[in-house]
Fold Anaerobic sulfite reductase subunit A.
Amino acid sequence: MPGSKLKSGESVVLLRENFGALFDALRAEGYKIIGPTVQDGAIVYDEINSPDDLPAGWGDLQEPGKYRLRRRSDQALFGYVVGPHSWKRFLFPPHLRMWRAVKNRTGFQIIPDQEEPPRMAFLGVRPCELQAIAIQDTIFKGTKYVDPVYQGRRHAALIIAVNCAEPAGTCFCTSMKTGPRALAGFDIALTELLTDGKHRFLLESGSVRGVELLRKLPTQPATEEDRKEAEAVTREAAGRITRQLETEGLRDLLLSNLEHPRWEAIADRCLACANCTMVCPTCFCSTVEDTTDLVGNHAERWRRWDSCFNLDFSYIHGGSVRQSTMSRYRQWMTHKLASWVDQFGTFGCVGCGRCITWCPVGIDITEEARQMRQTVAAGKE
């Protein structure tokens, strides 16, 4: 069988006309394939069945508060950046029933929801998103407080990463050291190559599962020219990223200026709509709700995504802890770029730019940090 002698660490080439073999191999292993597809004017992640479902020939234009699809001049399958969805919606579901209670003759019987974790293959995971998954791994299964639902789904997931060739105007992954090339956290990483009329993919294994999957594909050995071309793709992408976030001393800068007037300037624009937290691949705020039927015979407990921008999220007896928009934006930004470091040893931001693109008024977290740094430095002169 082609590829059966592949060794760990070797790179191979899969031609575009053979890309469907990857789908066949994944389905044969019992995986449900989740990948990018065009829906409702955006590129989103959903279940896909063949390469025909991929956004061939589609790219996107992104700026603060702006997202538009555009037609490319080629038929690249992964020629877009990232859309409004992130992979956390499949690992940390937006709505999850935790248990249900049914009334019987002696009282209520609690029935936990313990479904078997679905075997999902994530196709098209960007390097910044790999880091986001790694961050959520730390949160949900890297401490003594383990989320069993996340843990089960994460262990059952296979990750096929895509090295980034098309950064958006809102990307700043180079500042966060999360891209545009995937270095770890994947089972397979692919780089899409389109030169001289040849459409192909350079594939690299990152795990035993990845090697076993590649051995089932009709691949051919990668040449030195293929490898150099793949390196050039991400090198050129990095060179086109102009948005920057200076991270040196950022934690101390934010936590030392909690009453800085810049917070009010941001709040004057912020709608507290929670878009930034909903599209963020690392935000993990949630709430728990209990519901019951009208006659009292059936009850359910649900966990759903929530946001620190919602007034009720910080409600305790007597009222909300953070009543103003300013305090809620400050909580989000300082957690993402400061106190997250204290909690988990890393920033809670991966530089994907979603919060900038999908903010209705175009608030730019990198610009706000820059403005604060400049005004603080000017005040010390």
